[in-house]
Amino acid sequence: MMLLLIASSAVVSASEQLPAVSNGGYSVEPVHNVGINPMSIKSVYSSITQGVTNWHSKTVSTSITSLNVDLNWGYSSNSLRLKIYSPDGYVFGPYYDNYDGANDGRINLNIINSNGIAKGTWYYEVYGYSVTGTQGYYI
To answer: Which end of the chain offers a freer environment for a tag, N or C, measured as fewer CB atoms within 10 Å?
Structure first.
């Protein structure tokens, strides 16, 4: 199943990025203020270089209606891209730094579904879209 999902990935420019998606009862909203967020992936530190893809995952095993995904690299001169794959077959993204209206080295969003976020393993694809040297990040 992952091979199929990876094969469907395509590079999309920031100008083609949609401000929000809604499908399968899901909506995606940027987080504009920092505060208490819904369930999110445990913070993992990693690094990335130009053209490289890193994968991270989060298992959802409880009933929740909102999932926070926060990719933070803090250096707006480099650009990372984020795609999210749900266990029930939906692909969210691509998302770029300016998704929330600010170019600040961070993509912070909530995936919301009033019927419930799918239980299972969610995959997070972090891609070094435009990176000089090596860029560290937390997700």
So the answer is: N
Residue 130 three-state SS: strand
Is residue 15 assigned to a domain? no
Looking at the domain assignment, is residue 2 inside a domain? no
Q: Cis peptide leading into 30, omega within 30 of 0? A: no
Q: Which of 56, 73, 65 is nearest to 38 (CA)?
A: 65
Query: Is this prediction's pTM over 0.70?
Result: yes
Parent domain of 53:
24-138
In this structure, what token pair is assigned to residue 128? 């070094």
- Residue 54 covered by a domain: yes
CATH number of the structural domain spanning residue 69:
2.60.120.380
Q: pLDDT (tens digit, 9 = 90+) per residue, 50-62?
A: 999 999 999 999 9
